[in-house]
Amino acid sequence: MTIYVTVGDVDTILGSDWAEEAAKPLAVLQANDWLTAKGIPVDVDDERITRAGAYLAKMAAAGTLYADSGGDLKRERVKAEGVEVEEEYQDGARAVAGDMLYIRDLLRPWLNPFGSSVRILSRL
Predict the structure, then answer these.
(1) Dihedrals φ, ψ of 78, to 5°?
(2) N or C: which end of the chain has fewer CB within 10 A?
(3) Using CA atoms, how far apart are residues 92 and 70, in angstroms rounded to an integer?
(4) Residue 69 CB partners (closer than 8 Å, separation 6+)
(5) For residue range 13-69, what is the model confidence (pLDDT) as tens digits?
(6) How far apart are CA 26 and CA 114, in angstroms?
């Protein structure tokens, strides 16, 4: 397994109260797996990757890194006794946690805009 961040790194960056002690190893494991799945290079020594890993571990400990999705809401309208609620999202839109937006900004230089399975090849 590739290690981008350790429990010690996360404790240093976020403080030791970011998760219960028993939950920390699994949360860090999921953070490292997420970074590996996104194709983040291991040979780059950049503190932004470590910070992103710390926030990923925090999300994993909170159960939001690999959380279930209820699907994309296209339109909903609820009306009862004078109270009306209406929601409509763009096609393909889904809620994104603030921590995930921060993580994406930290990792922008390494994230492939086409997804992790597409690589651009050049001829030598």
Answers:
(1) -125, 130
(2) C
(3) 13
(4) 94
(5) 999 999 999 999 999 999 998 998 888 988 888 999 999 999 999 999 998 887 755
(6) 29
